[in-house]
Amino acid sequence: MPAGVAAAAAAIIPVSSFAYDFCYDDPAISVTSNNGHQTTVYVTSYASGSEHAPQLAAQTIDYVVATKGNTVTVHVFIPNGDDAAPFTTAATVSTGPQSSGKLLAGSWGQSGKTISLSFKVPGN
After folding, report:
1. Environment class of residue 110 by beta-carbon count within 10 Å: exposed (0-12), middle (13-18) or buried (19+)?
2. At 123, is the pLDDT very low, low, confident or very high (cuts 50, 70, 90)?
3. Which residues are within 8 A (CB) of 74 and not within 5 positions of it... i.e. 6 or more apart?
4. Spatial CB neighbours of 110, under 8 Å, sequence gap ≥ 6
5. What one-character DSSP code corresponds to residue 12?
């Protein structure tokens, strides 16, 4: 696990869980606030076990900006495996690739369910 990912994961994953084999994906997304300010953030998603790499690659990510203020909520959905059994997932939003830069949000999750991550972006 790269150093930046390990640092961010430590913020959301208990130390005892590092025995698990996690794979991750790290797409950049451009978020536009209510006043038109664009910010690039990185959504680093984790799946427990390298066998779940295909499901991680099939994830969907979208976001919404609150009508008032500039709170952004990123939604990360990682589908269940071929056997339909859920597995442990996690996701972070940060200002740099591989959870580097400022960590904006992070949470545990489960495949087949959406992880919602909220944070503020520069506003009006």
Report:
1. middle
2. low
3. 29, 41, 43, 61, 62, 63, 91, 93, 105, 116, 117, 118, 119
4. 86, 87, 88, 89
5. H
Is 105 strand, coil or helix? strand
What's this model's pTM, rounded to 2 decimal places? 0.80
Q: Nearest 5 degrees, angle CA 47-CA 77-CA 18?
A: 20
- pLDDT at position 16: 40
Angle at 10 between CA 52 and CA 111, to 5 degrees: 30
Token digits for 44? 């680093």
